[in-house]
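Reply to dn_fold:

You asked what the input looked like. This is it:
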Amino acid sequence: MRGHGYLLANYVRGNSIIHRTPLWLKFLVVAACGTASFLIVDWTVSLVVFAIMCGMFILTGAGLRRLLRAIWMVAPILLVIGLFQWWQLGGTTAARIVLNVLVCVVAASVLTATTPVQELLDGVAALAKPFRRFGADPERFALTIAVMLRSIPFIAGTFSDVRDSARARGLERNPRALILPVFITTVAYARQTGDALAARGLGEPERD
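and this is what came back:
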């Protein structure tokens, strides 16, 4: 399986100011971007925020190529969303919605490009600790995030490989040739992941 299907940038070693920024502050920036996507009503403001986040990403030293790859992976979805919103609500609203989604994608990529995975998961577990009183398990929550981060690239890479295979056989327009192999592979991958977790005593609730 080729490792090219990444929706978010991988960690890049560096000593930039963003690398040295506390994890809680980077979490806060990502949360602010997500909240702003519901509050910003002017597409020009969204464009400015998007430009700022792109500048922050480049400042990390991850490079323009990684930024473009993160954007390219969501481009087909954003194209569909943009066209639908343009048809329903007009061009300015469509531009605002697409730009707001891109802001969130780039902000998340800044976080993952400047934070080692283990540190990111430890931070997620620390943030979830206050919810322990409500029965939440912070470590299990962090494990779920880890599995998700590992699964997204695999599934995206599977789709790309299946698409290339279908194109080689002249079946790129056949939905069954694209969806069915990806579905089967994804289910098999999920079962293998579950079996691996169970073999290590993970993923099962504790019994009294």
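Residues 138-168 form the longest helix (31 residues).
Hope that clears it up.
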